[in-house]
Structures are given as C-alpha cells and as structure tokens.
C-alpha cells in the first residue's frame, strides 16, 4: 500500500479547499514551539457571526458547509468522516474550551492542523462558539429565551449581564452542556434548583440560550414565542446589507516575451463569479495601446473578479480578486507569452524524494522542480503536432525495475511502452516553478541501487528522505542532514547535498534495509548542512494543472485530456485559491509550492472560463 504523509489544511472560502500532503517542512532549524496554552475564557467576547464567516472560509472542505462532517474531502475519500457538530449530543460532555484547544493546537493524528498561527485568540473563540451552537435548533434557542426571560432574567439580567442578585453569564467556557443542565437542575449556592419548576426540555432550552448570551453577536433567525404571540427577534446590531460598490475595472495586456506584440482586436472578458445573481461575463474591446476598461461595474462582496484574454490558442487570466477587498476602481493587468519548443530553455532546480517500505516493495515519491529560463512558454518538442494527445513537455526516466504509479489520476502524465519514461503534458511557463510529481514502486531488497539519469541541466538541491525505522541511504553524493517526525508514528531521516549535474549524468544511491533498533540511533539533528527544502503536494486530490504566475495559459490542445477527468467546479476552484492565499499569508505554505499550486488552480479556472 502506498502511503502519502499528509496534513490537511482545512481551508476553503465559503466551503472548499484542499488537502495538503507535505514532504515535511523545515525540520532541522529551530524546533517548533510546544502547544499553545489555552485560556480559561476569551479575553474579548467572541462573535458567532464572525465565527460563521471564518468557518466558511477555512473549514468546510473537511467539516461540511453545515458542520455535519461530510465535507468535500470526506466525500471524495481523501480523509475520514469528521465530527458532526450538528448532532444533538455534540456538546453533552465537551466544553467550549475543549474545542478551542483543538482549534488552537490541532490534532495532527487525525489530520487537523493548528490554527494558533493564523487566527487570533478572539477569532478562534468565535469559531469555537459558532461550532458549539450548531447543534442548537433556532426554535430551541428561542424557546429558551422565553423561559430565561420568565425565570432567570430577574437575577441575571435581561441579556445575562448580571445584577446584584445574580452573576453575569458571559462565561462557562469550561462547562459542558450537561454540566450547565445539571447546575440549572440542582441549583448552585444561592441559585435555586429548577428540577421541579422546569421540565427537562425547558432546562435544556435555557442552556442553549445561555450559550448565546456569552457571545457578542448572538441572535436567532426564528421569531420568539411570547405567551403565544409571535414577535420578530431583534436584528443584530450593525447588521444589514452591505452597501453596493461600483467601480471601473481596467488594465493593460502586457506581452511577457521580449519581442512579442500584443495583437489588434483582442477582446477582454470580465468574469464576475459567484455573486448573488450568479456568474456574469462582460466583453470589452482592447484598445490599440493594449488597455481595456469596464466602467461603473457593481461589485458584489461575494464576487470573485478576473479578466481573461485569448492568445496563441490559450486563455490567459489576471489575478483573482475577491469582491470583499474592492473599495473602488480596480487595476487587473494580464500578461501573455509567445511559445517555444526548445528544451534547452529548461533546467532542474531540485529533486526531493520520500521512500517507505512495507518489506515487499520500496515506495518512492518524488517532487522535481523544473524552471523555464526563457520568456516564452515551453510547449514541448511534439507540441506543434495537432491533436490533444500529442503534447510532450518534460520527461524523466525511472530507475530499473520501477513501476510508475500515477498519483494525479488526471491523465497529465503518460508512460512509455517499456514503462521507463514518464512524460508530462503540461506547458512549462517562464519564471515560475513547474512541479512534477512522480511515484513508483520497486521490489524490496536488503540493498537496492537506485540510479536516475539527468534529463536536463541540474543545479540545485537533491534530497532523499527515508523511513528511519526501516531504511538507510548510502551515497557518495548525499550526506545525512537529520531526522524528524512528520507524525506521531512516522520518523524520516533526510540525506542531501547541492549538486551540479549535466544532461546524461546519473545520480545514484543505495537504499539499505535496517532493523528498527538500528535506525532509531541514526538521528543526527546537528548537521551544518542546509535545511531541508519544504515542498508540498497540494490540490483537489493531488491533480495538477500547472499555470503561469498570475497569467496562466492552458493550451486548448490539452483540453480533451482535462475534460476526461473529474474536476472541481469553477466556484470550488475559486474558493481553493482563496484558501491557498490564506494559508500562504499564515506562513503554512512554502513560497515555491504556493506559486506552483496557485497557478495550477488558475489554469483550471482558465479552462472553465474558456469553455463558457
């Protein structure tokens, strides 16, 4: 069985994100700090409304849009079923502080990342209390509000603010719902027992209302029942429709190739995606000076805004901008490129491998970073031939006896008839990392020699990360860097070196099977060598469609290949881009991986835009 070590980044604007499987981040510099201490209660009152927004932006991919645990990654089988926050018993024996601790420090054993580095204390408490109230039906909260007003407000205050006769109710973050129910039932000190005064249903309803009283923005959408009369619940302070913003969206079509010329009669397409009234597309003429302008465009905060143009049988797009960030006019340049078919523009900057074993096979996962040093898009030596299956860009030869495993599952890679050469079908864009993911298995032996032929000039890092407990690496080139634990049950030892290799050179090393007790002693964390380069496999599944730094082309001759594979929708891709941006801003994703993945997602959006 092939295993990918993975950490899920639960992120996805309005609900969809992506799974993040990593070849682990920097492991030999300073060790990560211990778990963040959890406060007994929030320093600032949390907001359920804010928690709902943060949840929608970061959590729905795993936990589902309604919090019932059936997010997209669960449905696709990439992670197991997560907790159902909507279950009536969800809070019975769990406190808000318990959930806050999980959100703050994560639970990596079940692929839940920590959020202490990307969300403030107040934001984490807001998400906590939003989740904690998901299991409360709105009518139950409204019912509890009426009981509270009749039985509790005299002592505790109408809004739970407290009086001389009763404590304020802005707390209880260390009490479960069962604990609060028991306190209401049996009383506490001067507080009377309500076992004989209120039914169990009424006491449970009061618990739900008390929970909302601890929050800054807790209101219900349901009408409140008061002695049989329906009255509307008060509107949340400061809520209401956001003011409509209009602005001019303009930019220039920039040619990224030195001698390139922006053609006449180009058409710029403005795409406003995901707003209240659905997707909107507007056409605008590109002027002779390469500029375009869309005037007085109404901007929905839910819009994602992008401009696209057609050139050289491809779709090039601008940056993606969220409507929530637009306060007026918006400048969106689009860069286009000419093409090249010369492989001499390519070089390899790094090769990172992970190796595991089940004592029957060696399982090898490689990430190869290719760069195009020209100012043209490399289309492959056979790209001039028509037909969707003729494109061949970068190729890599597998070691002897290797069996290729296509972990992308999207038809991006092809394998030669003899099973030795894996070829990528995607264009290599200038000035951007083009990341190739290879996976293959080899027969397990106590000593296995792996030899890889260098297909392109190599100048950069080579690293091999092997399972510490069962494997060791011997190589004239590679030196031990250190060991680390990407999970509680897995330890890897890394070997690496800087290398300058010419086309046709062979990079070789031996993989040696070792006993667990021997491997356990082979940990060297004091290496003076460069730290391990962090790389990530990101994506919907792990499917990759590579794009260009904000200005991606997706060649139409590849479209039939892309259409043949299941793919996320345009809205899902937009949300995934937003989620990736948040992860990068929070320092959770390496810049090289961030740029590569962002352009992969943008390429897929470009394809969908082209098909509209």
Characterization of this structure:
The chain has 612 residues and is an alpha+beta fold. Among the domains are: 92 residues, Immunoglobulins (Immunoglobulin-like, Sandwich); 194 residues, Immunoglobulin-like, CATH 2.60.40. 21% of the residues lie in helices and 29% in strands. It has a 7-stranded mixed beta sheet, with no helix packed on it. Strands 6, 7, 9, 10 and 11 form a 5-stranded antiparallel beta sheet that branches. Strands 5, 8, 12 and 13 form a 4-stranded mixed beta sheet that branches. It starts with 6 loop residues before the first strand and ends with a helix.
- CATH fold-level label of the domain at 343-536: Immunoglobulin-like
Low-confidence stretches: 1-39, 215-242, 383-390, 516-566
Q: By helix and strand content, what is the structural category?
A: alpha+beta
Across the major sheet, the strand order is 19-22-16-15-24-27-26
Helicity level: 10-25%
What's the CATH first level of the domain at 343-536? Mainly Beta
CATH architecture of the domain at 343-536: Sandwich
Strand tally is: 29
Radius of gyration: 28 Å
- Shape descriptor reads flat
Largest sheet: 7 strands, mixed
Average per-residue pLDDT, rounded, comes to 73
Report strand %.
25-35%
Separate helix tally: 13
- Taking the alpha carbons of the first and last residues, their distance comes to 40 Å
Keywords:
612 residues, alpha+beta, Immunoglobulin-like, seven-stranded mixed sheet, five-stranded antiparallel sheet, 29 strands, flat
